[in-house]
Batch of 2 targets.
Target 1
Amino acid sequence: MTGPGAWPVPGADRALERARIGRSAPRPDGPAKVAGTFPYANDLRVPGMLHARTLRSPHPHARVRRIDATAARAMPGVAAVVTAADVPGVPTYGLIHPDQPVFAPVGGVARYVGEPVAAVAAVDGRTARRALAAIEVEYEPLEPLTDPRRAADPRTPPIHPNGNIYRELTLRHGDPGARGPVEVVDSYLVGQQDQAFLACEAALALPAADGGVDLMLATQWLHSDRDQMAACLGLPEEKVRLTLAGVGGAFGGREDVTLQIHGALLALATGSPVRIAYDREESFLAHPHRHPARMWFRHSATRDGDLIAVAARIVMDGGAYASSSPAVIANAVTHAAGPYRVPNVRVDGVVVRTNNPPCGAMRGFGVPQVTIGHEAQMDRLATALGMDPVALRLRNAIGPGDLLPTGQAVPPPLPVREVIEAVAAAPAPPPATAATPARDRPGGRGAQADPARIRRGTGYGVGVKNLMFSEGFDDSATARVVLELDRDGQPRAVVHTACAEVGQGFVTIAGQIARTELGLDAVVLAPADTAVASAGSTSASRQTWMSGGAVRKASVAAVDEVLRRVAASLRLPPAAAATPRRLLTLADGAVTGPEAGVSVGLADVLAAGGPVDVTETFRHRPTHPMDAFGQGDCHVAYACAAHRAVVDVDLDTGLVRVVELTLAQDVGTMLNPLSVLGQVEGGTAQGLGLALMEELVVTDGMVINTTFHDYLLPTAADVPPLRLIPIEQPAPEAPYGVKGIGEAPTGTATPAIVAAIRDAVGRDLRRVPVRPADLVLPPDPTVYLAPPDEDPEPQGPAEPAARDGMGLSDATPGAGTPPGPDQPPAPGASP
Amino acid sequence: MTEIAIKITVNGRPQEAVVEPRLTLADFLRENCRLTGTHLACEHGVCGACTVLVDGAAVRSCLMFAVQAADREVTTVEGIAAPDGTLSPVQAAFRDCHGLQCGFCTPGFIMSLTALLRDNPDPTDEDIRVGLSGNLCRCTGYQGILAAARQAAPGPAEA
């Protein structure tokens, strides 16, 4: 077990820079990043470049009647204005379904606040901004569809030719009618979180002599961007070349195309390099967010606490365009029962189109929402049974060989029991006392909480997250390894992938893997670009397994080629020559084989035979689509995690201080322990943000808080010390036994903190994030979702839109006949 | 618009320019001086990524106009390593302690921590947390940054 401050850090041990797998090699980009010389996408400048800006619709739903850019085009310094009429290829794009217009066209419809309508390139940013103001756009505002429950109603008119339902999923496992003697039923609501990566979107587009375009940008998946760009630009893929520029965070928010096509269009239209970059407000409007969710759960158990059945209904708001919504709802539905053994599961999930901001990928990808629900339910069930919440979870913990709700057997390892036991056994922090300084109380120095009004609470959050892509997607990653001589005649390896380094540390891991397999310290990474085949997305906890697997495979192949060359020179019998690894070893820059009496330098091998250049593609085992009842071997692998949160709450102000977080996580084999620690700490902090402060407030389709003044992110004063207890059980199917690290703890931190607050204040909190008002005012009745039993058509008749669409900020205490404080609603009584 | 001639000493070198009064110090550093280590993430004084030292005090350069820095000494992240490129103790600590991932917030943290440790060479963890709470990091959860601050702190002054 390792506590804060006790984790081994590299210190000034420079030898670690050449460390192989298993040790905490420092980031190779660290020196440039601390010196301020690391070039991020928005630092890129070339002589003569133009500056681009994007005109966006101010309406949640409006028909574009007319666009007149005559005045803007005539302005001195304006090089080009482009609209939908200037898109030469397919007019729409999208990660899964191409349903989003590059620009809302004249005669067409703009479907969310911030939808692009036109883009301008000018000699400087100021001129471009003035040109935007000179573009005349006539809109005909339409009634916005902002309530996802209305969007799910088949009687609601579609707001897009593809309809209002992105995907509806039904999962039936075991006996869907099974019930138990002890039941808990409740509804939960999760607000909209933003990825809030710190470096706003930016790219530099360069027109090329062959009529194509080169783009240097911050993204998560170069090849997905390229394919979508090529289709819309009407160019063959080989004429659209992308290179990764420095990426300042991503967290799912750079999976979708935002400025890529606009920048390329302007570069091609003007024949000049074009810099396109967003500020924070535009960033908030331009990229998809985490899906807000309304969820209903019913957990049934025996009187001994064995889960008999879980029923759930999930409504997610996908916003105006599909993005990755169809995959997000699949994750939510298949994870809705959590890391527990449940023989009978019934889940209905739907993700719908509205005129709210588009939603897509964010760390956890549909799983954090349902984890908030199933963990709240487990605590309620423990209360109903009179059981300890940890004991209830342990009793029902799923393990290898047990069946998941999809009918898939849990692939080993999945140490759910171990992570729960580990956090429960960790020592608790000392209680707050009257001597606790004001700054360590809820609200800090400014709030001056009365120590007599502070309550301490402890809560647990346990979860499981799938790793990599699912449902039969042909997931692959490619790596090229070149062994060559450097200018001094020394051997070195160049590792080339298209894997997007977004901060997660793949550049560190790739070097460690290559050094390990090649037995060589001199490993350099080539820039990630589309000159090599796809690495897939930096998402879904997949790159260490996938691109790491590809680097390993290519490195092994490179060694094989070196050994083959040496073996060939030895004139071995054919059987021995075919298996040179039995005789020869490449290590420390030399091929040796004592049995064969061989010792030859790698430099000599490369000098004689030329560079070794191999490209290999890695795939995980295939997955399969789900059937009509949500059954199927749809996920590759899982990682589990458990958080324990300890909080102090000021009963007077509703302010919360998270005192301590302990995390036990299923980490597979740790290739770089400090990098693992950094990932789980960051993931935990984002889960804390969702629990307490992060919410994009959307009212009638309008995004209210597009700055860091009012979209709050956790600071160093908000995030407490975190203790990580790694549970290391190698995953047999994975390269080196690794597991994806970054997502699982994001999902468990939030419910643990919310549970701790419930424990402190004795309220049934159903809404996340928990706002101070939720702790001091009467509960919000708009949270409740009608259970499907009592309402066979849960979409119901069209109802008046809640004030903010999701009812998220519609605290209407006393409205109608809400349930009393902390009482569950009567079945079917609401909404 | 009236433009104003200013002279600012940036990382020990005098920089002369004629600028509009509305030009922020951050844009002056990034665009006029091409010192892009000073980062902009919010442009309204919340995130701290643009923190620089002005006459030794930590300042958000997005909230200060270049003309306000006239005749003053500005130090950016590019100016705190030794002339031979040896990283400052704070820079080295961030690199060694995994105090960064994407690294976009890092220059701001380094400048804030440099000022903090000069004023308080032996801070407690709570001093560090409060002292760095004006800088946002989205990747690390701050634990690696705290470790860096502990490593970089010179410790109690000799009596």
Note: The longest helix of chain A spans residues 543-569.
Target 2
Amino acid sequence: MSYKENLYKNCIKAIEKIYTDSKYNSEIDLFRSFDIINSVNANQIASKEHLTEAIVPVLSNIKKLKHAAILGSWYGLLGVMLREHVSDDVYIDNVDTDPETKTIGQQLFRHDRTNFFVGDAVDHILDRLKNYQLIINTSCEHMEQEDVKLITQAKDKNAVICFQSNNYFSVDSHINCSNSLDEFVKGLDLIEVMHASVLEVKPENYERYTVIGI
Amino acid sequence: MLNIIFVKHGDKYSAEHVNTLHKQLLPYYPDAMYHCYTESPDGINIPVIPIFKKPSVRKWWNKLAMFSADMPLEGQCLYFDLDMKIVSDPRRFINLKSFKDLTILEAYWKVGDPKYSIKHAYDVYINSSVITWEAGEQTHVWDHFCTNKDYFMRKYAGIDRFLVHENIPHKIFPDGLINSVGNLPNRTAAIDMYNGMTYEL
């Protein structure tokens, strides 16, 4: 079974559990089922595959990759994809402020060195500045720009960052969209840009920006 | 001390909406302190409270920031949406003795329609176009929102649904304070409310 088939199978099981639990507990959050479905929809898969394809050629340049952080990881979709391309001894740490991302993330994918942390992304990185050789943030549009820059500037100088944002201004929680790839790249203020690309997202008609650098 | 607060974020409403509503309320609340919580103070004739830089939220979600412990308000707080026209004295319906509780409007046009009580649609029978509370007494509203704001903004279409489905205790204003212009039947009330419609001055 491919990782994708396994992931979808586990999503279905997680949704089944939510429904079954809801029959005996009126407090069960049914919206979670919908949220799980959205977290692995076609746009999410395309966006994370786009990032993975961009980062894979760079992985061999990362000296002694031991720890990778994925900020704003949701239920861990990107971590599942990344796991296909890194050795089993690499730790992948998913970080999200939503406590349920850990519970559900662990239902969707289990690996000894894939972890889920609940907390603020900036606090997590600042507490572990030297730990990570690779820092991925697929949610820059959800974070204040000062926090995005704090991460790029506080990290270990050799750590590679792989950040995504978009120009999807109409979503309520998108507080820090960029108008263009160029604007996103400038805002990151990197020493070296290894990759910068745009993915057109239909039918919502917005652009997703992916930047990799130091 | 009575504070009257407006929230203006983005460009759906203008400074003129703020100033007009202020003028309409002055005859009834001449001694209140008026405030506008906004990121764009140009043209606004009342004192402005700058929108929080962090955490940053957009649109109507900024209304929840009024409950934050960092909001510089003391005493009784009375909030109005900007799409409201004061037709007559609203004071009959706003009891200055009951600001201890969070008090909100009932969306009377929804009452009796069962589609608004379908559980997983997360719809509600309240409307937060007018709110009263005591400054500092509802900080749990903002604090709770900040624990998982991105998830709440995905789950709920607006703050009314957040308040009800996150079990924030609240009371309801007496009937007659508002007439929702876009919903039948039209009624005589102290305030005409243009929710869901374009409100041009």
Note: The mean pLDDT of chain A is 95.
